[in-house]
Amino acid sequence: MKRIAGMLVVVLALAGILWADSALSITGAGATFPYPMYSKWFDEYHKKNTNIEINYQSIGSGGGIKQVTEGTVDFGASDGPMNDDQLKAFQDKHGFGILHFPTVLGADVPAYNIPGITVELNFTQDAISGIFLGKITKWNDPAIAGPNKGVRLPADDIVVVHRSDGSGTTYIWTDYLSKISDEWKNKVGKGTSVNWPVGLGGKGNEGVAGTIKNTPDSFGYVELIYAIQNKMPYGLVKNSSGAFIKADLASVTAAAAGAAKNMPDDFRVSITDAPGKTAYPISSFTWLLVPAKFSEAAKRDALKGFVKWMLSDGQNYTEALSYAKLPKEVVAKELKALNNVQ
Amino acid sequence: MSARLRWRKFVSGFMLTMTGVCALVSVSVLFFILGYLVYHGGTSISWNFFTKLPTPVGETGGGMANAILGSGKLLLLATLFGVPIGFFGAIYLAEFSGSTTAFIVRYAADLLNGVPSIVIGIFAYALAVLPFKHFSTLAGGFALGLMMIPITLRSTEEFLRGVPNALREAAMALGASKWKTIASVIVPAAYRGILTAIMLAFARVAGETAPLLFTAFGNRFWSSGWNQPSASLPVMIYTYAIAPYEDWHRQAWAAGLVLLGLILVINIVARGILSRGIAVPRA
Amino acid sequence: MATTTTTVPSAGPVVGSRSFLSRLREGDEIARIITFLFAASVVLITVLLVFELWRGSALPRHKFGFNFFRTSVWDPIFDQFGALPFIYGTLVTAAVALILAVPLGIGAAIFLAELAPARVSDTLEFFIDLLAAVPSVIYGLLGVFIIVPLMRSYIQPALKGTLGFLPLFKGPAYGVGFLTAGIVLAIMVIPYIISVSREVLLSVPRDQREAALSLGATRWESTWKVVVPFARGGIFGSIFLALARALGETMAVTMVIGNTPTISASLFSPGYSIAAVIANEFTEATGDLYLQSLIELGLVLFILTFILNGLARLLIVATSQRGGGMGNT
């Protein structure tokens, strides 16, 4: 008995040490699209404010919306804005609303892994929608080969890779597909997870990038930074003005130009298939989802502090990770909106 | 006749050899697994792995110190929650209960034992995450503890029943009350077996991933206290393995080696040393 | 591997003849009540678990009824949920696993129980027990980095080349898919089949073997025609047990199955299993119907494993009693 009592004392002492709260911990979850950016930000912010730890888990945008609505995380993050039903569900459950704060701009890129091909391929709207609808199944299909003269595309089956989890990256991709293809719009629609006509599922941008990298003849969509970090080739996409555009800081910023001037008050805006000669057509804002009311003032202030920092100094980290900075108009508008978080 | 006999002998020899091959193949899988993990993990393990926090996504370096501590905390909670229920429940079954109650409890425990771990995760999410409004180490420990209950209960009961009745009768004849007999005679007599069973239960939940996905969740930092989400080794292996980063793959292998090493050592200690001299009921 | 605890001859409580009051004074009654509470909590937890699964899946049960199991559209946007692809994937991968694991496992069990000297048998059994302790995420890790590339580059092209005329082996070689998940599962369940079957074979009485041998049977004939049939029930029990485990397996499967709800005759095709879809989508299921559909999948999984585990126990117990009890009695 004495031995057991002794062990219990040790255990409780250990528990006491671990219990001692050293830092204010805030939990967020959601989009994997800006995860490299967010994990960098939260890491840097923690270095500057050692008493604040913001733990961000990249479970997918659908998960971010779901968990912030359930109240199991302090804030969510998504690349597809919450729809009206989801906003209403949040309002009904909590009695107050939830606010969207754009953080950066990013782009979905069509990434592929074709053995022996390292050049950048050109993709038309029809090629992308055809592949994802399962109508184009071989790499040497004329719809793909047409705008890629001089590239010897193999006669192999295309392995389509998409997300298996609810995802804002998917939202952006399907939002784009719905705009360029009526068949897609009617058959599949847009959303954080859809009923895919074809393909393999990977979990998270990480999972899709991993699957593409490991699977010859694959084709899928990932956030730009995942393609760059993993040295995966990705293609140019034909925009609404008929030019093939590569996703980069300039072309993504160009896509946001129109929206920046007419930003709605709730920041929910789609910039896929945006007009403009140099605009990359599969671009998007990505948002933090912050409840309008916090029960703990300390958490509220810490999070507001972070958003302020993110909108000013934080924006300097974006370009190293290939995300485009927010337009100035949007930053100013957000700083005002931050006052609505209580 | 002799041709037929020779044929039968040949079939016999051949089939028996084949069974040997089957056994060899099955056992060699263990060594393949160990070999791969040591090969890939051994080259990836470094001091940083044990002492550093994860770095931001895509940057190399960093370690899993928080996941190692997180797993430790989760397992501590699981043990504190699961073992007492299993242990005292088993005492009731072996020493006090009537046969109907015992049947019901055993049946429930067997049912619980068969529940797929992902379903345990759903249950723990509904019971220990939603009502408290946050993912937490406590919820993860609860989920793992649930899985320890049936294993501890059934094996402890078996070892208690294995104690000869003569010991019980002798103690009671000396005038000891029943609970004194249990505490000072029966449990000590069975204690090595019980400890083995608890260690095996511990080893089994140490590698569980699915119940932690929606309970302990994950954490890029140290998890302070018990109310915060926490990283754990198995979940880290999962998320790092399916990611595209070479450096994360390297760390997943290292974590796999550490986790498997821990589990195998516990198993070997439990089965090889503690149980020496007593009959461990197999399976 | 304390998964198949079998019945123990009851030592029976020693019934005291003292009065309730004296028992209370000596603490017996208190000890009894306290330990009872612990035992009762096990029942309570189990009942609560079933209740939560049942309550949590009310919406889809009412909305879809039996169609939930018959339709194959899983579409969170249009709120249509049909579980058929997941059930199909779960059953197909489990079937592949059993086809591979049963002969290998029973073969190994026969070797361990009938041929190997006791010391060798015990040592090998020790390794098999260790193999059973390897966690599922480790199998997943090895699956992703070793088995999947191996399947894609060698095994699937080879199968396509030789047996490609069968609908089973058609389509592009992705590496991931039903076959790969089945193989990983097979490796995971083999230890269960070996351990339990070995135990059951060992419980077959000596005289059965000796009788057969003395009648002029070869060693294999006595094993295959006498010992194995005698232990048949228990061996089936071990297979059910392995099946239950294969159905509920989550991490390793979700890492190699491809995570796409498809129903395809080809084993090369990527698929999805019940446990995998719960693991992937549970934290993000927005909307009550979506979440509850996942919980209903959990309920299905629970019921399946419950039935299989029950059958397995019955068979193992019945067989070992026929053989006059197992090792520890």
User: What is the total number of structural domains of chain C?
Assistant: 2
Span of the ends, CA to CA of chain C: 18 Å
Distance between the termini of chain A: 53 Å
Helix content of chain A: 40-55%
From the alpha carbons, calculate the radius of gyration of chain C and give it in angstroms: 24 Å
Indicate the proportion of strand residues of chain C: under 5%
**What is the top-level CATH class of the largest domain in chain C?**
Mainly Alpha
Mean pLDDT of chain A: 87
Structure explained in plain terms:
The complex is a heterotrimer of chains A (342), B (283) and C (329). Chain A is 41% helix and 18% strand. Chain A is α/β, with parallel strands linked by helices and 342 residues long. In chain A, the strands form two sheets. In chain A, strands 2-1-3-11-4-8-6-7 form an eight-stranded mixed β-sheet. A three-stranded mixed β-sheet of chain A has the order 5-9-10. In chain A, strand 9 (236-238) and strand 10 form a beta hairpin. The longest helix of chain A has 18 residues, at 2-19. The radius of gyration of chain A is 22 Å and the shape is globular. The mean pLDDT of chain A is 87. Chain B is flat, with a radius of gyration of 24 Å. Mean pLDDT of chain B is 89; it is low at 279-283. Chain C has 14 helices and two strands, in the order ααααββαααααααααα. Chain C is 71% helix and 1% strand. Chain C is mainly alpha-helical. Chain C has helices spanning 20-25, 28-56, 58-64, 67-70, 84-115, 118-133, 136-163, 178-202, 206-214, 219-230, 232-248, 251-256, 274-281, 288-322; strands at 74-75, 80-81. Chains in contact: A-B, A-C, B-C. Chain A binds chain C through residues 29, 59-67, 69, 86, 156-157, 159, 164-166, 188-196, 199-203, 211, 214-217, and chain C through 73-78, 80, 148-149, 152, 172, 174-176, 254, 258-260, 270, 272, 280-281, 283-286, 291.
How do the helices and strands line up, and which of them pair or pack?
The complex is a heterotrimer of chains A (342), B (283) and C (329).
Chain A: H1 2-19, E1 24-30, H2 35-48, E2 52-57, H3 61-70, E3 75-78, H4 84-94, E4 98-113, E5 122-123, H5 125-133, H6 142-145, E6 159-163, H7 168-180, H8 182-187, E7 200-202, H9 204-214, E8 218-223, H10 224-229, E9 236-238, E10 244-245, H11 249-261, E11 283-291, H12 297-311, H13 328-337
Parallel strand pairs in A: 1-2, 1-3, 5-9, 6-7, 6-8
Antiparallel strand pairs in A: 3-11, 4-8, 4-11, 9-10
Chain B: H1 2-42, H2 47-51, H3 65-96, H4 99-114, H5 117-129, H6 137-162, H7 165-173, H8 178-206, H9 210-213, H10 233-241, H11 246-274
Chain C: H1 20-25, H2 28-56, H3 58-64, H4 67-70, E1 74-75, E2 80-81, H5 84-115, H6 118-133, H7 136-163, H8 178-202, H9 206-214, H10 219-230, H11 232-248, H12 251-256, H13 274-281, H14 288-322
